[in-house]
Amino acid sequence: MTDLDLRLVRYFTAVAEHRHFGRAAEALHITQPSLSRQIRRLEQQLGARLLERTPQGSSLTEAGEVFLPRAKALLRSAAQAASLARAAAEPSRITVGYTAGIIVTPAVRALRERFPDADVRTAHVDWGERTTALPELKVDVLVTRLPFPTDGAQVTVLYDEPRVLVLPVGHRLAGKESVTLDDIADEPLVRVADPVWNAYWRIDPRPDGRPAPDGPLADALEDKFELVASGQALAITALPRAGALRPDVTAVPLHGVDPAHVVLATRAEERSRLVAAFRKAARAFLKAPDS
């Protein structure tokens, strides 16, 4: 059985990332000869050569290619174990993550009042980072909307939000009390790269099995609203809070579809007292926009 030195593993991942011993040494704040010696020690422990020097810098051997993803996973696991141990021993810090259109302030305020000596932080999580923010320890809790990957997470539904159709103010359906999927059967809807998101928010396929008409791709919420305002597509979203929409688009309730679910997600093995307290505060204080 090989006992790996995590420091050596970290050195290897740095060289693999930079593909250059000199740049990796600079990033690690050690000398290049020392880094080379540490990599040789790791290779001796493993009994395999991991890196080859090239005129351009360095490259991974076949063994290095196999070892790299496992090395990264090992470092993540070690960091998570240390973080959880510190949190269990002395829960003095928590980072509350949230995604666009969600307000966590009431629960954060309640947590700060209950634990005045704790370091309670908030962090906006971009849509593309919502799947990695928890496992990569960027946040300790995440308040977001489904669909959300729940593997390795404990998920609590906080409240529901009606889904609405966002359309230009001059659209034929603007101003109606509500619309149905039949009303937009032939209307293109904005897409994103995530197929799970598309299936849920575009309601694709429709209940009758037909696919939702394809609209252009968008990477961010602002891009989505720009596409809608310019008349290129419509979009389905959660009921926006007052003032959240730009003036050239409007929202109409979408009748006959299930509401969106806002959830609180934590790492499944999380035992922090602060996390448990925030979950309780979120249930008590975080409500739908019209509540």
How is the topology of this model organized?
Elements: H1 6-18, H2 21-28, H3 32-46, E1 51-54, E2 57-60, H4 62-89, E3 93-98, H5 105-114, E4 119-124, E5 141-145, E6 153-161, E7 163-168, E8 189-191, H6 195-201, E9 214-217, H7 221-229, E10 235-238, E11 249-253, E12 260-267, H8 273-285
Helix pairs in contact: 1-2, 1-3, 1-4, 2-3, 5-8
Number of helices: 8
Share of β-strand residues: 15-25%
Low-confidence regions: none
How is the biggest beta sheet arranged?
Answer: 5 strands, mixed
* Terminal CA distance: 58 Å
Query: By helix and strand content, what is the structural category?
Result: alpha/beta
Number of strand segments: 12
Question: Would you tell me the overall average pLDDT?
Answer: 90
The side-by-side strand order for the widest beta sheet comes to: 4-3-5-12-6
Order of helices and strands: HHHEEHEHEEEEEHEHEEEH
Helicity range: 25-40%
* Backbone shape: globular
Radius of gyration: 24 Å
